[in-house]
């Protein structure tokens, strides 16, 4: 059984930043669904490149069969890890249902780390992220925020109902956010 922590929050809330620090310090392996999709988009011979780029630009969500397979392959490649940080997934109902179908019975879902941050702060961070992403522009960001509000937040609410959500306010400086995140992991892992 793989230990899994889902990391969710609006675009720019700091998911990637916090996951890379947890990976360095706590031995979890960071798997960003967005990074895996971008790598697949660039892979020579991929049949999904154009489809992925269309979704990324439009801020819509790639069909789960593609994303979940990329995640499972990456998990298999690091099967000795303490656990996995699944960053930016599940982002809608299709993601959640497809994950259950493909991964149900193979994973121990520990909790959902919800990085909460006001949307205007998040958008400003993305516009200054400096990674040259094709979706860090005002037009794509509007759509990504809409997708987050309409599709992703309801998934967080579903997890909240079953007591799985650990919310950390990520509007604060990274060190403060990270200190609180470490406490969440410590509590979860002492059980
Ligand atoms: N707590 C924070 N305070 C200020 N800037 C942050 C914070 N966390 C992340 N950032 C910056 O905001 C941008 C988006 O962060 P990132 O980790 O890529 O977010 P996400 O993966 O949720 O989109 C990056 O440029 C990052 O350096
Ligand atoms: N589960 C996912 C995650 C990301 N995507 C696509 C659509 C998203 O807008 C982009 C970028 O996602 P990514 O997690 O890298 O973006 P942020 O880190 O939240 O800014 O990738 C997806 O289709 N399905
Ligand atoms: Mg990210």
Automatic annotation (TrEMBL):
PROSITE patterns: ADENYLATE_KINASE. Gene3D superfamilies: P-loop containing nucleotide triphosphate hydrolases. Residues 32-62 are annotated as: NMPbind. InterPro entries: Adenylat/UMP-CMP_kin, Adenylat_kinase_CS, P-loop_NTPase, UMP_CMP_kinase. It comes from the Eukaryota. Monomer. This is UMP-CMP kinase.
């Amino acid at each position: 059984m793989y230990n899994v922590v889902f990391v969710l929050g609006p675009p720019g809330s700091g998911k990637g930043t916090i996951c890379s620090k947890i990976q360095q310090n706590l031995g979890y392996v960071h798997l960003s669904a967005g990074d895996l999709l971008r790598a697949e988009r660039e892979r020579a011979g991929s049949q999904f490149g154009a489809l992925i780029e269309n979704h990324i630009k439009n801020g819509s969500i790639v069909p789960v069969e593609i994303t979940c397979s990329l995640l499972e392959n990456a998990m298999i490649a690091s099967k000795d890890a303490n656990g996995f940080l699944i960053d930016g997934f599940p982002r809608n109902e299709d993601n959640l249902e497809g994950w259950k179908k493909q991964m149900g019975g193979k994973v121990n879902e520990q909790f959902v780390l919800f990085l909460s941050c006001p949307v205007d702060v998040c958008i400003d961070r993305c516009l200054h992220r400096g990674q040259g992403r094709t979706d860090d522009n005002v037009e794509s960001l509007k759509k990504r925020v809409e997708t987050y509000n309409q599709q992703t937040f309801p998934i967080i609410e579903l997890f909240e109902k079953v007591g799985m959500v650990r919310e950390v306010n990520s509007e604060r400086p990274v060190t403060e956010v990270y200190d609180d995140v470490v406490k969440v992991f410590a509590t979860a892992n002492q059980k």
